[in-house]
TrEMBL record:
Presence of the UniProt keyword Signal in the record: yes
Record-given protein name: TonB-dependent receptor
Membrane-topology annotation of the record: Multi-pass membrane protein
Pfam families: Plug, TonB_dep_Rec_b-barrel
Domain TonB-dependent receptor-like beta-barrel, first and last residues per copy: 253-652
Keywords: Cell outer membrane, Ion transport, Iron, Iron transport, Membrane, Receptor, Signal, TonB box, Transmembrane, Transmembrane beta strand, Transport
Family that this chain belongs to: Belongs to the TonB-dependent receptor family.
Superkingdom of source: Bacteria
Any one cellular-component term (Gene Ontology): cell outer membrane
Annotated GO MF terms: siderophore uptake transmembrane transporter activity
Domain (TonB-dependent receptor plug): residue spans on this chain: 50-156
Protein's cellular compartments: Cell outer membrane
Length: 694
């Protein structure tokens, strides 16, 4: 603990030292760097990061391309307070300032948007693994409750964006790597001042390091933008993904240490993952339209509508699930901008509606073939969000945000396998979730801010109807209050930048996962939890002359401290109060170096992850580990209009044995899902630029 406090104090001291330097008279700021400052779209701020009173992590295209171009996972995990896991290739989990107790697989309690449209369905689940790597240009991650504009949730918000290339071009890339990794991608973009379009196809496959971890994904994406007139635009986004990945199951500690590459083996009590052909088959089509209209220079409106269809099959060790999902919805945001003599601002208000319908049938699994039916259910949800937010730019370089939302949710459940049919309805009480945030610019390079926000997160449909097959109509929503303070800025003529945030989040009725003796999951409310944390980033990017051999250099680091505890949790007569929150590493740190020398570049990343508690009793921990990886490449022009790149890289260079995606509270101690040992990749990319009229 002393080391943590000393580390935190040193960062704070450095921050205030930078503040004193920034406050002193200095030469005018570098105009180019000011223009290149990141503009944040989260909370519809549309302002530089130095004027955003919120903890927002930004993942740019440059950040994404530091790694292997197969997944956003390593880039996302450079953001402090964010953890993305991969239990096996294609099987993702995601959390922001929280544990993964609510997500045995998939993404829950994190609201995600795709090009301004809800990607999270009306049942509270997000298929993040459907989005191909190259379909993402950048991402913004909002930490803490985002209720003022994004509705119910205690786990944060992620905004994914695909931008159409401004220059008409083709792109082809291919790569290969260890354990049968193959990836091919072809895209084209072009258009005119009034119409722009982008279309892409990507294929990715891998045999996986472990048994029963093969994956295959074919994804088609298309984005179109029409400028209808000087006041309005219409954009469309479409994707279709055919995803398959095998699921190997968790290992005990003894199995993990003996042979981490094995899948869960067959025992006298149950067949193993290989015998049961455990896997996920997901075919999803998604389409959305966004219409922007500006009545004048003060009033504007954005109207969006979307729909998706999913066919999902999941043979598991226990059973064989088949379900169909229909999801439709829309979102309307109206914005009013105003200017007063000494202050100005904007007001945003609107609503979002989602309808979700899913028949679910579960069968016996006879060696990968559906057998006798076990259950036949129908699930529905209706979700309505109304929101409003005022952003005020006040005298004295003060920026104030006042916002809030009302959330309405109803679930319907029907069991058709019994006579008479069982019908149950759950209508959650409407909840108001406010957010207040204030930022003060101390100088043109230094800002401090604070915020208070309320979180409300109802259980997802997958939690009220978990893999036990029993509908739980009494699972209560999570409710919490978050306090946050931060300081961010730069010094040394913007060569050094930093961002430090501290928060205290008190959560009531925390939802946690439990397991039945045969391994099925179900969820309970665990009383109260205390989630306190510190998040820091620090980077140094010296100014370099254009004629220098080294044209780009950036040294950066990030650190996350999580002091997460069960504060009031008694289950089956056992008191877990005071224990560490399951699945949360107390300390996570990263250091990276990015270097460009003429046409060559190198990216090196080292990360440390602390011991992770694997069960509520804190009797089992996954050991800490250090990972080192890197990518080197060469960029050139084959001809005047044909950029070319060749690259190669290594992951887990130290050949560590670790688990990236533990099964929490697993029965029989089957916690571990081993990640790949040392592995390699390499590839090429070519991007011919197309001249207008060619």
């Amino acid at each position: 603990m002393k080391k943590i406090l000393l580390f935190s104090f040193s960062i704070l001291s450095a921050g205030f030292a930078f503040a004193q330097e920034a406050a002193a008279p200095s030469a005018p700021a570098d105009t180019t760097k000011i223009l290149n400052e990141v503009v944040v779209q989260a909370y519809v701020y549309d302002r530089p990061m130095s004027e955003v009173p919120a903890a927002v992590g930004v993942v740019s295209t440059k950040d994404l391309e530091r790694f292997s171009n197969t997944s956003i996972l390593p880039a996302v995990n450079t953001i402090p307070g964010v953890r993305m896991e991969e239990r096996s290739p294609g099987s993702y989990r995601f959390s922001i300032r929280g544990s993964l107790l609510r997500s045995p697989f998939g993404v829950r309690n994190v609201k995600m948007y795709w090009n301004g449209l809800p990607l999270t369905d009306g049942g509270g689940n997000t298929y993040l693994n459907l989005i191909d790597f190259n379909a993402i240009t950048n991402a913004e991650i909002i930490k803490g409750p985002g209720g003022s504009l994004y509705g119910a949730g205690t786990g944060g918000v992620m905004l994914l964006t695909k931008q159409i290339e401004p220059v008409p071009q083709l792109q082809f890339s291919a790569m290969a790597g260890s354990y049968g990794l193959q990836r091919y991608q072809l895209s084209a973009s072009g258009g005119s001042d009034k119409v722009k379009a982008s279309v892409q196809f990507a294929h990715q496959q891998s045999d996986g390091y472990r048994q029963q971890t093969a994956m295959r994904r074919d994804a088609v994406n298309a984005d179109l933008a029409f400028k209808l007139n000087s006041k309005s635009t219409l954009s469309a986004t479409i994707f279709y993904t055919d995803l398959f990945y095998e699921t190997p199951g968790g290992l005990t500690k003894a199995q993990f240490e003996q042979d981490p590459s094995m899948a869960r083996p067959t025992t006298p009590a149950a067949k193993g993952a290989v015998d049961q052909k455990a896997a996920v088959y997901n075919k999803t089509a998604y389409t959305g339209l966004v219409y922007d209209y500006a009545w004048n220079n003060r009033w504007s409106i954005k109207t969006a509508a979307y729909g998706s269809i999913t066919d999902f099959k999941n043979p598991t060790i226990r059973n064989f699930e088949k379900r169909h999902e229909d999801n439709v919805g829309g979102r309307v945001t109206t914005q009013y901008n105003f200017d007063k003599e000494k202050w100005n601002g904007k007001i945003s208000f609107g609503g979002e509606y989602q309808y979700f319908y899913s028949p679910v049938k579960v069968y016996d699994n006879n060696l990968g073939v559906a057998g006798n039916i076990q259950s036949d259910d129908k699930l529905k949800s209706n979700q309505l969000l109304a929101f409003a937010q005022a952003d005020l730019e006040l005298p004295g370089d003060l920026f104030l945000t006042l916002g809030g939302s009302m959330n309405f949710l109803k679930y319907d459940y029907a069991s058709l396998i019994v006579t008479p049919v069982i019908n149950q309805e759950r209508k959650f009480d409407p909840v108001f979730s406010p957010r207040v945030a204030l930022l003060k610019k101390l100088t043109h390079t230094l800002s401090v801010y604070g915020s208070v926000s309320k979180g409300f997160s109802p259980p997802s449909l997958a939690e009220v109807r978990p893999s036990t097959g029993n509908y739980n109509n009494s699972l209560n929503p999570e409710r919490g209050l978050s306090y946050e303070v931060g300081i961010r800025g730069s010094a040394l003529n913007r060569q050094v930048s930093f961002d430090l945030t501290a928060y205290d989040f008190r959560l009531d009725e925390t939802i946690v996962i439990q397991r039945t003796p045969d391994g099925a999951d179900y969820f309970i409310n665990a009383g109260r939890t205390s989630q306190r944390g510190l998040e820091a980033t620090l980077s140094w990017m010296p100014s370099l002359a254009a004629d220098q051999t080294v044209s780009y250099l950036r040294v950066w680091g990030s650190y996350t401290y999580n002091h997460y505890r069960f504060s009031d949790y008694v289950q089956d007569g056992v008191n877990y109060s005071g224990n560490q929150l399951t699945g949360v590493a107390p300390n996570i740190g990263l250091i990276g170096v990015d270097l460009t020398v003429k046409k060559f570049y190198a990216n090196i990343t080292t990360s440390f992850t602390d011991d992770i508690p694997l069960n509520d009793a804190n009797s089992e921990f996954a050991k800490s580990y250090v990972l080192v990886g890197g990518r080197i490449g060469y960029r050139t022009l084959l001809t005047k209009n044909v950029p070319f790149e060749v690259f190669c890289g290594i992951d887990n260079a130290l050949n560590k044995t670790y688990s990236l995606g533990n099964d929490l509270n697993a029965v029989g101690g089957r916690f571990y899902n081993a990640a790949a040992p040392r592995n390699y990749y390499g590839g090429i990319r070519i991007k011919p630029l197309l001249k207008k009229g060619s």
